[in-house]
Every structure is written in C-alpha cells, then in structure tokens.
Amino acid sequence: MNTRLIRVGNSQGIVLPKKLLQQYHLVGEVDLQPTPEGLLIKPVGKARRQGWDERFQHALAQGQAPEGELLEGFSDEAFEETQWQW
C-alpha cells in the first residue's frame, strides 16, 4: 500500500486508513520502532495490572470473594501436627 507524506506544521505525517487502524488495534498512542527495512508502527501495550481494580470490583459485585477463596480447601494437617514448630 502506498501513501503520501503530508505537511503537519513543521513536520510531515501519513494518514492511515481506518481499516488498518482497526486491524492492528492502533488507537491513541503508538510505538514507533526503526528497523533496517523501515519504520514499524505497533500499538502501545497495556500497562501491567491495568484494569485489575475494575475486574476486582466486578468480581465483588458478582458475589465472589477472592480473598476467602484463595486458600479454600487447602490444608496440610499432617505437616502442622508433625513438623511445624513455633
């Protein structure tokens, strides 16, 4: 696919077709990486743990209690009775 460079202030840019933007999930900020073949344009990945708070709140609203279920059913009574010492 060919496109033209266009003047944007003192710089130049390109217009990317909507179909390409959707196909490669390019929204807002993008990552530009120079390569020997040219310029690679990639979507910026989500920050780690982004959205965790919303998913946690949704789980609570659905009646889940992650803290209570974390160790549910976990017990090693034999270890506690024979090997654990204070």
Automatic annotation (TrEMBL):
Q: Please give the superkingdom of this protein's source.
A: Bacteria
InterPro entries given in the database record:
SpoVT-AbrB_dom (IPR007159), SpoVT-AbrB_sf (IPR037914)
Give the GO molecular function terms. DNA binding
Boundaries of every SpoVT-AbrB domain copy: 6-49
* The protein, known as: Antitoxin MazE
